[in-house]
Every structure is written in C-alpha cells, then in structure tokens.
Amino acid sequence: MAKNSDNLLGMGGQRATVSRSALRGGKGGAGGGPSEEARERRQELLSKLRERQSAQVAEGAEAQS
C-alpha cells in the first residue's frame, strides 16, 4: 500500500509530465468548436422546434376562442 493515503498513483507510480497548454487543449488539435455540419443540424432542429411551438400556441389560441 502507498505510504500516503492521498496518493492515487499507488506504489512506485509516476505521473506523466504534461504541459499546461496540452491540458487546456493546446493550439494543435481539433479547431476548438463545433463543425459546420453540427452547426447546421443544430439550426435545423431549432427551427423545427420553433415551428412546432408556434403551431401549438396557435392551436391553444383557437381552442380558447
């Protein structure tokens, strides 16, 4: 067992040294945001939801009249 109970590495374990920029995502990698396709899908879903919501509001107004 490890001498220190706070040590999550176990006996003889070593933490790999990783730079802070790599931990934060660094400058290299996957662009840092959703892809164009993902943004388009999101916009389509939002427009469909708005259409459904406006249709439901219209039905509710007709039912009350």
Radius of gyration: 26 Å
Give the terminus-to-terminus CA distance.
75 Å
Strand fraction equals under 5%
Main sheet attributes: strand count, strand direction, barrel closure: none
Structural class, from secondary structure content? mainly alpha
How many strands appear in the DSSP assignment?
A: 0
As a percent range, the share of helical residues equals 40-55%
Q: Figure out the total of helices.
A: 2
Shape: elongated
Please state the average pLDDT score: 77
Q: Low-confidence stretches at least 5 residues in length (pLDDT < 50)?
A: none
SSE arrangement, N to C: HH
Describe this structure in words.
With 65 residues, the protein is an all-alpha fold. 51% of the residues lie in helices and 0% in strands. It contains two helices and no strands. The mean pLDDT is 77. InterPro entries: DUF6243. Pfam families: DUF6243.
Write the layout of secondary structure elements.
Elements (H helix, E strand, L loop, with lengths): L19 H4 L12 H29 L1
Pfam families: DUF6243 (PF19756)
InterPro entries: DUF6243 (IPR046210)
Compact overview of the structure:
The chain has 65 residues and is mostly helical. It is built from 2 helices and no strands. Residues 1-65 are annotated as: Disordered.
Keywords:
elongated; 65 residues
